[in-house]
Give the backbone structure.
Amino acid sequence: MSLLPLVGFTGPSIDWWALLPQVILLGAALLILLVSALAPQRTSTSFATATTVCASVIACIVAFGLWNDIKNEGPSASIASALAVDGFSIFFTMLVLIALTITALLAHSYLGREGIDPPEFHALLLCSAAGAIVMASANDLIVIFLGLEALSIGLYVMIAMHARRPEARESAMKYFVLGAFSSAFLLYGIALTYGSTGSTNLIHIRDYLNAVVFRDEHLLMAAMALLLVGFSFKVAAAPFHFWAPDVYQGAPSPVTGWMASIAKAAGFAALLRIFFAAFANYDADWSPIVAVLAVLTLLVGAVMAILQSDVKRMLAFSSVSHAGYVLVAVQSASASGTSAALFYLFTYTFMVLGSFAIVGAMGTDGEHPLDRYAGLGRSRPVLAMTFTILLLAQAGVPLTSGFVGKFQVIAAAVEDRGYVLAAVAMLSAVISAFMYLRIVMAMYVADDEVEGPSPTLHWTVSIVLIGVTGFTLLIGIVPQFLIEFAEDAVPVLIRG
Amino acid sequence: MIELLSAQSGPAFPVLNAIIIVPALGALVVVLLPNSRPEMMRPIGAIFSSIAGAMSLYVMAQFSGHDPGFQFESIQSWIPALGINWHVGVDGISLWLVVLTGLITPIVLLGVDPHHNPKPYTAWLLLLQAGSFGAFLSLDLFLFFVMFEIVLVPMYMLIGGWGYDDRRYAATKFFLYTMAGSALMLVAIISVATLSAGDQGITFNVIELAQRQALSTNTARWCFLAFALAFVIKVPIVPVHTWLPDAHTQAPTAGSVVLAAVMLKLGTYGLLRFGLYLFPEASVWSAPTLATLGVIGVVYGAVVATMQKDLKRLVAYSSVAHMGFIVLGIFAFTTQSLEGGVLQMVNHGLSTGALFLLVGMLYERRKTRAIEELSGIQSAAPIFAGFFTIVMLSSIGVPGLNGFVGEFLILIGSYDTRRWWTIIAATGVILAALYLLWAYQRVFHGEPTPADEATPDLTLKEGLILAPFVVGIVFLGVYPKPVLDRIEPAVNGLIAHIENHSDYERPNPADPVVVDHNQSSKDDH
């Protein structure tokens, strides 16, 4: 093979500044791996945690700078339009970085308590986070796929990290098989999209779809359907949610939180960018399908959740139900619906990370029976109140961020005249509320002889819980700035 | 974030905001108090609660009796991105409910001992007071919904934390029933705001939305139904009343009192403020159905109350009957019936609240509420029996006490527009005498057993707790004019609003010419 063709090759100009958050995360991952490989003794988890948190904070500052740039100069695309630098990508970058910090802190306590301290965990977490950011900023179907794989591969290993627990390995295997399966759907969808539009770049796809009227739309319809199925697997939307409860239950709680928040959020980010931005002209075709998925997801999640007796499984099904709310917002195919989805994902991330932090603190073995929480209100009133606030927020009780999120989702559906969908969403909230109330009641109403558990909270867990609960209440009372942030983050496709 | 946009009419000091914020602040203070001083919790909570109560009395004193509109209005921008304001105001309809909330909460806070965990108990009661104030005062649909839902949490916690044996079931049922009702109301709230937006922009301002009346008849009816569902569950109206007996019976005494006196009123108040005011046409359209349900509630509640073996359950079912009267009054659309309805809300708060207090005191003494296990209490506890008699007679509606005034106004006002409904509802008064007197007879008369004879009489403290209720009962029964004078302009304004926006016209027996005139003008077309 001759080198000649490469002589005249000039790569696309790369805006390193825009890539800096991802680069920082990957650099930190490399640093952790290098130090652990070269250091004479085994490096401590503290080092990995500190590096992760520092990297996350620095990346957050950079993302904030990028946000100001976008405000002043408008959105842009870099690397031959493969990555977008817009409000949407910064919104998700911020979200991923916050969740990364929280998960790193929770993992610190988890790894320490379980006596397994591989530094690889944090390195994988950083890679996974970088993948999520790439996925949310990608402007090209292939890049979305790359981001997705980076996100998932890290997750497969993180789930199985606790090698002594068979259910963790089983869970990782399940997630791996179904993840590969759904990736195949996605790839198929990408291939068919390429076949019908001649490009994998979202801007080209949009322009092509704007300019061309198909005589035969079947190929494009099949592409959209396969992409939807693929993403439905990733965000655990019914009827593609079957892996979620088992995987969530078997995985270590910090990883479960990461899966339920960021794996879901990144999936929705890619879904929104592809469907809302690139397939915008075809919303009459995909919006009803998403609406059906939304109804199924809401009801299956809510009904299955109340049938569980294991707290972790309850929360797993409730996270399915929450994906239904985001889908309700997505199906409205409007700017207000998209900003509602973003707001919902942002606030939900805090609630779900906090909830799984408490679940993790209550016990690490495979089972999480409801009885374990009996009397927590008496033995640890502050912890019980924290959990109550997080659960009520997920139930959508006012003065919590969960209510403002639900309000916006319902408003988006109603503006789109989706009254029935809005009613179904609210009724499923009532069904789910029963499940959240069961947990609350278990904590507060116990027989007098029940001692009540008193788990020891690592200081990192306490910090996380104070943070997420404070945020949940703060956004519930003064949501204006986050609403504006979400409105500014509605995706726009810009040519680089 | 929240900035003062305008302080419209009223004094510079936003007293209504303070009424809502002070108890909430009190809850925060109580939570931050050290655990080592459990005896301090309730007095400190009562101070905050009383400050709010005093402010509600100040509002009552400063309230202008001739103004049918909203007074002490205060608007602050809250979530501008969604067109949501912190907007509060008071009129003749909400004024007395605010005063009732302001007075009853400190009384039960001081008067009823929770026996354990006084700190969260006090904090929840204060939050309940703040939320109830907020619900009665808010003039923004979003704010109202927030307050309407948030009061569920403290009540749920009070039932769950300090209730009786079956509290887990009762608390969950209470929460889910109310939440199910309000779920569709949220959809309707957003629909009303979105569909009324037009060129003027989205608003959740109740006054603005009521003036616009931008919804088509059919849409307005659907939205009204969603609102009405939320409120009839809260009232509660048969057949969605089943949460109430459980919640009342399992709740601690303070919870029962506040539930009966304040929270049930959210339902009837909501029907008046958001049903009739926002959807006048749909209210008139649905009035026969709702009035029928109200009357069914009157008779059904009374019949079921007669059959009860548990004294507290009996009082709970009597609540269903009394609230049915109020619903009938509301959907009769005459000045007297609405006045009577508003007054009866206050009356019911006083008499049923006091009955729950008395039953609670009896339970403290005897550890039972079963009617058949009690007998001849009168001889052992004559003062207790005396208080019980006065309150019971007020609940029955004996002339000279407050219950009579309210029920009489409702019946006389409804007779013009809903004759047969009124006639059936009137039997409820007789049935009330039946079940209450019969229960009284079994519990207080008869041969006392040794346990009954050992029942201690009312203490001075308990007497002081009950005294305000009895004073209110007698005062409203003898001289209700100052209260009615302040209710009337608002009620008349509301009826005029309904007349403007629907084909309803209030009957005017004094001036039958009006009817003829209409008849002839219709013939001309």
Remarks:
- Chain B has 22 helices and three strands.
- Chain B has a mean pLDDT of 88.
- Chain B touches chain A at residues 1-2, 78-82, 120, 142, 145-147, 149-150, 152-153, 156-157, 160-161, 167-168, 171-172, 175-176, 179-180, 183-184, 186-187, 190-191, 194 (CB under 8 Å).
